[in-house]
Design a protein that fits this description.
60% helix; 14% strand; 97 residues
């Protein structure tokens, strides 16, 4: 089991698209296209990683700066959940006595 963790920049990976797109004044068309391409790339990358058995984990840059311990706790929870799921899948029950 493998984990891939990203700390995404709000300006280049979509956060700004949903939060502050109106504030884009210079090169607006370029940035909108660039952000949409980055979002599509991230989705493709996540799908490829999941197909290969990886668990992608994303955080916004501001989340990491504001509350690093919450990000670490989230990663720990995801790893623990994956370990539990893996252990459950490996358990065998012998109904014959």
């Amino acid at each position: 089991m493998s984990f891939a963790t990203w700390f995404n920049s709000e300006a280049r990976t979509g956060f700004i698209k949903f939060q502050a797109i109106a504030s884009l004044k210079s090169n607006r068309e370029y940035w909108i296209e660039k952000i949409e391409e980055n979002m599509a790339r991230d989705l493709r990358d996540d799908q490829m990683l999941m197909q290969a058995g990886w668990v992608p984990i994303h955080f916004w840059e501001k989340e990491v700066i504001k509350d690093l311990s919450m990000c670490v706790a989230t990663i720990e929870e995801i790893i623990l959940a994956q370990l539990i799921d893996s252990a459950d899948a490996q358990e065998t029950i012998d109904y014959e006595e």
